Design the sequence.
């Protein structure tokens, strides 16, 4: 028996009503009901038969189904136990899906997916997007690609260029670890219930090698310091690392960077120079 396509509005409405499930605001639940967007996300993972995909926040199984139909081995991690029960029914026709009722931030991902390369697919709740992204990247997991639905504002920050208002610590971190590209924007009406903001889908290819040669801990310490106070000159912002003005002045001189510049004007390479001249 052919499974109904969950991404269709009428099917999602039926499922939610049948299980008496109301979207939980505190968990950022908004169910995607645009079949074309779901197919675009699934296609962007470039997964095929046997490929491992870690899905974060599968909800009622909308994207999970599309990934499974491409033959991927899907490991779907869902925090809400009520939705795990729903997926037990909506995805019962697929034998290539494993549903895990857990908090992704407390999950041993390597134990779950093994040591082979895998792809991440996620519709990230707005309230916890950044912690999840950093948790995935900082562990140096064998991720080859991340395909993520995030708030449009967050997506703009991730793909920003130096000098713009959106450029910040998140931009530098994501572009250090990955090569992010905007796939598409998704209007609020594509969800049930409709959120108050627009969303966007990002495809982030994991870099085989970092774009600069630095001590990673020092590099990110410097980045956090530079952005600790927005719109402040580097000579002032970097003092928030617990440094004296005299130390910062000498450091900037060693690096050949003007202390009157602001953190949002520095390229990743320039942050690398700062990290490598920090003593």
Sequence:
């Amino acid at each position: 028996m052919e499974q109904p396509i969950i991404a269709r509005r009428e099917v999602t409405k039926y499922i939610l009503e049948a299980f008496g499930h109301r979207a939980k605001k505190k968990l950022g639940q908004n169910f995607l009901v645009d079949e074309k967007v779901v197919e675009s996300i699934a296609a962007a993972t470039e997964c095929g038969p046997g490929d491992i995909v870690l899905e974060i926040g599968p909800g009622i199984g909308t994207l999970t189904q599309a990934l499974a139909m491409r033959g991927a081995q899907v490991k779907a991690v869902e925090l809400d136990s009520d939705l795990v029960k729903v997926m037990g029914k909506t995805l019962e026709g697929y034998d290539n899906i494993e549903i895990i009722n857990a908090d992704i931030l407390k999950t041993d991902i390597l134990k779950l997916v093994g040591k082979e390369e895998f792809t991440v697919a996620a519709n990230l709740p707005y309230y916890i997007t950044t912690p999840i992204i950093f948790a995935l990247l900082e562990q140096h997991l064998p991720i080859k690609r991340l395909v993520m639905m995030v708030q449009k504002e967050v997506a703009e920050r991730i793909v920003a260029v130096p000098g713009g208002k959106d450029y910040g610590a998140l931009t530098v971190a994501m572009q250090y670890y990955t090569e992010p590209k905007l796939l598409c924007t998704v209007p609020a009406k594509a969800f049930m219930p409709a959120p108050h903001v627009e969303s966007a889908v990002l495809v982030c290819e994991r870099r085989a090698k970092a774009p600069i040669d630095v001590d990673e801990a020092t590099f990110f310490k410097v980045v956090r310091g530079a952005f600790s106070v927005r719109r402040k000159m580097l000579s002032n912002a970097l003092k928030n690392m617990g440094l004296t003005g005299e130390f910062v002045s000498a450091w900037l001189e060693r690096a050949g960077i003007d202390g009157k510049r602001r953190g949002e004007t520095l390229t990743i390479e320039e942050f690398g120079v700062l990290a490598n001249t920090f003593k």
The CA atoms of residues 73 and 96 lie 5 Å apart.
